[in-house]
């Protein structure tokens, strides 16, 4: 009969191997992101827009999609990260996780987790909609998992990727339709990666944004 310590060391080795390449995601100040809310700000600031927000499409009030503020001075709505599989306490790079817009209620009375949704476009881009909290083993919950990947553009800069099967990953970019800038899952040249930095939001800022969107 094998020593129980053998099984413990075997399990510990498996956990360490799984997380060996999962470095922590850092905010714009170089601090490790553990929990809390963070604004997603474009690396390149300018007339192309500001932080992330919720926006309708095609003249329909609902559902809401993940879009970008038109003004570069608007930080938009912060996000929260959750549900990564490794047991590390920080938000890990290059690992599937869920992303939620940190706002308590919307005009559509819906949750605000990111979900990849087919778009009615001849380019066949996949827009990212606000949807329900993913349930483990739920119907097609794989559409709600994204990864945060480091870029070389700037120190502490990242991009989002959608990896439905864990292998074939596609970067999250932007698409302008009807004057609305929305996040999409699409390969170049139809969309270029949306490169961003993370700025920590205070509780007061989050509460203010919540009140303004209800």
UniProtKB/TrEMBL annotation:
Phosphoprotein found in the keyword field: no
Q: Does the UniProt entry include the keyword Translocase?
A: no
Coiled-coil residue spans? none
Family annotation (PROSITE patterns): SOYBEAN_KUNITZ (PS00283)
The Swiss-Prot or TrEMBL record annotates one GO molecular function as: endopeptidase inhibitor activity
Look up the signal peptide feature and give its range.
1-22
Write down the PANTHER family for this protein, in alphabetical order: KUNITZ TRYPSIN INHIBITOR 2, TRYPSIN INHIBITOR
Keyword list (alphabetical) reads:
Signal
- UniProt name for this protein: Trypsin inhibitor
Q: Name one Pfam family in it.
A: Kunitz_legume
């Amino acid at each position: 009969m094998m020593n129980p310590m053998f099984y413990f060391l075997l399990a510990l080795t498996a956990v360490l191997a799984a997380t060996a390449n999962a470095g922590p995601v850092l905010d714009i100040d170089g601090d490790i992101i553990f929990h809390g809310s963070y604004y997603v700000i474009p690396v390149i600031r300018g007339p192309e827009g500001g932080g992330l927000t919720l926006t309708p499409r095609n003249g329909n009030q609902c559902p809401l999609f993940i879009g970008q503020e038109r003004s570069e001075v608007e930080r938009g709505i912060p996000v929260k990260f959750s549900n990564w599989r490794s047991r590390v306490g920080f938000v890990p790079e290059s690992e599937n996780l869920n992303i939620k817009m940190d706002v308590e209620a919307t005009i559509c009375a819906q949750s605000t987790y990111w979900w990849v949704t087919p778009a009615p476009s001849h380019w066949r881009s996949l827009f990212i909609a606000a949807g329900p909290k993913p349930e483990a083993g739920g119907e097609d919950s794989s559409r709600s998992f994204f990864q945060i990947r480091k870029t070389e553009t700037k120190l502490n800069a990242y991009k989002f990727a959608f990896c439905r099967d864990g292998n074939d990953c596609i970067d999250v970019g932007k698409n302008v339709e009807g004057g609305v800038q929305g996040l999409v899952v699409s390969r170049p040249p139809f969309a270029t990666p949306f490169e961003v930095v993370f700025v920590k939001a205070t509780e007061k800022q989050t509460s203010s944004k919540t009140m303004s969107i209800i």
